[in-house]
Amino acid sequence: MPEPILNDISHRRYNPLRGSWVLVSPHRTKRPWQGQEEAATDTTLPVYDPSCYLCPGNRRAAGDVNPQYESTLVFVNDYSAVKEVQADYKSADTDGSLSSLFLQAESVTGKCYVVTFSPSHNLTLADLTLSAILLVIKTWTDLYNAHLSPSSPLVNAAAPTTLPPSTGRDRTIRPNAQYRYMQIFENKGAAMGCSNPHPHGQIWTTTSLPEEPAIELEQFIKYHREQGGCHMLEDYAKLEIETAERVVYQNGGFVALCPWWATWPFEVLIIARQHRRALTDLLLEEKEQLAEIMAEVTRRYDNLFETQFPYSMGLHQAPLEGSELEIECSYFHIHFYPPLLRSATVRKFLVGYEMMAEPQRDITPEQAAERLRGSGGVLYRKKMEEPL
Hints:
The protein has helices at 98-102, 130-147, 211-226, 232-243, 284-305, 324-329, 353-356, 365-373, 380-385, and strands spanning 11-15, 20-24, 73-76, 110-116, 181-188, 200-206, 247-250, 254-257, 268-272, 311-316, 333-337, 360-361. By secondary structure, it is α+β, with helices and mostly antiparallel strands. The strands form 2 sheets. It has a 9-stranded antiparallel sheet with strand order 3-4-6-5-10-11-9-8-7, sandwiched between helices. Strands 1-2-12 form a 3-stranded mixed sheet, with no helix packed on it. A hairpin with a 4-residue loop joins strand 1 (11-15) and strand 2. The longest helix has 22 residues, at 284-305. The chain is globular.
């Protein structure tokens, strides 16, 4: 339990995942202006959009035609951020010159995928049934397992992949090289740069270990060594469940909470309650529990301001290739970073002090969790569809 004084004074909170700090200014929520009140938004989209490059049977930007799929669809991104095949490069770093100190670069190869969550153009994760979300999780798991290094300790836990055979350009879904990391994520809403409302996410695999998961993994290893083999997020989940103050929802396998160190107003962290290194480790029951808690989080988001709540969501888990220590210390969790602050149209920006000094927030994580706990129940737009 935080000291009551922290509800009134500006203070900093420590983020053990990054070894960094965030400034909290709860007194600023007492300002007279609190943002305009928005009416419930009823965004009506068709089940099928003939101009959408993700709908079944439609032609994509590169000319390939989507199959008449019925659940999820996976294909190589037509505009991948990394090339699969290219010249190798690494800056010379042995001559002691200023160029070698400051102008460093290295080539990165990989493969980027798009994963649709449903053939229906007008749905989101908040709308999907638990069985439909479970299919998304299984698709993520199959792709992750298909890219695992043969030397990874996770291979023994990985079920044979059930990726369907593909044709044409999409035959490259199966990797032809060993990548270091796989980042699974979703950008939902125009506010997060998503130009297509069709429910989908992305998967980027790279030969490098990206900065954010690398920082977390370093902190996990440090905690594991200093705390006698314990896992940081397993201990943290126990603490949060005991206090319950920042918990939004929990079930037998996972807990969703607004972390003590949250930067975004309604930031949520989903943590496996027991040590799970990656999707590969999850039993079927745990995947079902993960589907349930993802549905709870996304539905509460939409209900909070009665809008299609934007966010960036990403899975962090064990690298595809790594040392035994790296794999053992990895811990499966999901970040939700939503920008909305006071209403459906008032958003938070990381600018000024936050760019030049450190992140800052007004509403406390405890207040955010309380509001999200109170936003459960039936999805607001389903209520709007009910006859008067």
